[in-house]
Protein 1
Amino acid sequence: MTPDQQPTADSLRSQLEALRLSASERLAAAADADGVEALRSALLGRSGELTVVLRGLGGVDAAERPKIGQLANAVREELEAAISARLEVLRGSELEARLANETIDMTAPGREVRIGHLHPTMSVERDLREFFHAFGFEVFEGPEIETEAMNFEALNMPPDHPARDLWDTLYVAEPGSVDAGEPRPAEDGTILRTHTSPVQIRAMHALRPPIRVITPGRCFRYEAVDASHNFEFFQVEGLVVDHATSLADLKGMLEEFARAFYGEGTRTRFRPGYYPFTEPSAAFDISCLVCGGSGCAACGRSGWMTILGAGMVHPAVLRAGGIDPDEYQGYAFGMGLDRITLLRHAIPDLRLLMGADLRFLSQFPAGR
Ligand code: DAH
């Protein structure tokens, strides 16, 4: 520093005075607490503006120095007080603003948690499980992808049996045949099961008599889709195998079931039917749920609705299950779950049930 640049006591005084003035203007302009803190270090920090002014103190007359020092301290104190006051004001109004904006209404009701429910077909399945459980049936499930041998042969339908036409199925393609442009059924006979009946065979192999099982599950058929048919649907099969099982047991069981599911006043009847895996076979009807039996469009004017097929297990089927037909007899029945669901809720079209439209499905909460 050259002598003529040495600050004089007067110049230091006026610098301090200027600092005091500009500081109070800048403080007033600081919009929030962060701004004030930044200003605090700009003014009073270790290399802040006040410190910079005081660096010139060494060049001032020794007699003047204490006075300038006093003035600097007074300015520092004043600024600190002004900073604290400004901070208090700003913090106060920030709190006020938050209190004003962030209202919490303690009386507001909580947000509703949306809980889903079972698909109507699944709640029918649950009810069936519960009903048959009370009669000593256990649930036994089998695979949706089956073999032709299980789905047909073991159920007394050899390869050329005409009854196979009733259950035309969806074939799993032989690996590679689709890519080769020549799709053909898998050589090992893998298909999608057309009914839950093959699970009878699996249950007989897995369990020893007495056997009482129900076998709920998904089935598939090569089917044109309309209001009452789909290529994918649900069945529940029932199987009982014991020493002295009779057609009377079957009848009693199904009548119990019909009354529990369709009401005490439901009338029932057995009609002769045909299934390759039962002998004798029957169709089981209930009095029409729409007209009560007088005849209407829903029951084809007959007054009756067929709800399942049933019969005494064919000896060939018992044998396929590894059970001696001379020692044991059994009865079996099979029903479509979707049909029960349609009847329960008076839904006119199966496609509504199988679609995934929640606006429709959420109208049918679980339970009967
Ligand atoms: N599997 C038959 C079907 O899908 C239904 C059926 C009929 C099952 C008679 C049975 C039975 O167990 O005994 O059409």
Note: The domain at 120-361 is CATH 3.30.930.10 (BirA Bifunctional Protein; domain 2).
Protein 2
Amino acid sequence: MAFIAVGVTGGIGAYKAVEVCRGLQKQGHDVVAVMTRAATRFVGPVTFEAITRRPVITSQWKPGMNADIEHIAIADGIALLVVAPCTANVLGKFANGIADDFLSSLYLATRAPVLIAPAMNSNMLAHPAVQRNVETLQARGVQFVEPGEGYLACGWIGRGRLAEPADVVAAAVRMLGTDAGINAASDAGAVDSGQGSVLRGRRVLVTAGPTLEDIDPVRFLGNRSSGRMGFAIAAEATRRGAKVTLIAGPTRVEPPVVDEVVRVRSARDMHAAVLQSAIRADVVVMAAAVADYTPAAPAGEKVAKTDGPLTLRLERTPDILADLGKMTSRATGVPLLVGFAAETGNATAKAREKRTRKGIDLIVANDVSRADAGFDVPTNAVTIIGSDEEQDVPVQSKERVAAAILDRVERLIRSRAATPARA
Ligand code: CTP
């Protein structure tokens, strides 16, 4: 049984949140409802009180609410925060760290995973401002239940309707299940506030996103990497007290706030930036999807079409990880090198081989043929492979996968206790 907060915001679907609470209770969970002021205009708090058998939180200014700083107490106690329905306004507050009511303060204060079921008019949902907020939240590991299509309260027919309560409950139950998985798999003490992390004060270099290889001034070769996995690792390393440099290819998702962000475009740019920065690093995590080939002779002018086919000659890009693996300082085991292996079948065996061939310490294998793992999705499922141990990390948010990877990095650093932190 888990303690779950259900946030209800001011949308016409607010009445469906009653069913979400009921559904979670039927699964044996204890639920507290948190309503925004606008939500109380759609459904009375008494309805939620009767269902949850708990006082409903409607304001942070109610007498008694601050006696034990309720939002912190709840934030610490919950295993999951579900927001259904979530309006464009509340999405925007979460994405931008605005905490002007109980629910938005709770979002900032909790370390529990967050599940959001958006509901709004189709045009609002499609608006770039809202889409950007969704991407920002996804990059932080927040999970979403897709809104449905159908009649909207505003009279439109389209996408934006709150997902069915049963789907919200199923997504919540899945998240609780997988979170239990990661907690069991991760190193106790490593996923704490970062106080005791061996990464504190160390320099961590993380790469993320795709590289783009120019064909001419307007065309390029790229790949589907969103940058989310690398961003999650950079954010988690920062949380653990590391000094993080993030070298990222072009991404739509905003990078997290870290010590230094270096933007690059091509594999060659990334190679130069990484080699320059790696000299000072204690750990290098190559989560970027670096192009293996680039046009041999990019055109200075836009290439005009002809009637015939076009042949593009590609040449190999430098292998950044392999070059790091060959660095003479590797004799000291510093920097500790972590690579990724995106495969579409037989991922573990191929990754094992790649780890040895590139001369690196850890490789994170993921099967990108799965719909819920790899490129351009907020979740991942990986196997972390070292020389002595292989650890399966089941599907969960990229934030949690990042924590599992850094737990493993920490274990390796501790086992090489002689490795000094660099000044
Ligand atoms: N990598 C790199 N430099 C490159 C290409 C990849 O450093 N030019 C890194 C990636 O960041 C990743 C790992 O190497 O950490 C992936 O290895 P790679 O050999 O490129 O594997 P894939 O491209 O996934 O697959 P394959 O070699 O089978 O084509």
Note: The pocket of cytidine-5'-triphosphate is lined by residues 267, 286, 288, 290, 292, 317, 319-321, 339-342, 354 (CB under 6 Å).
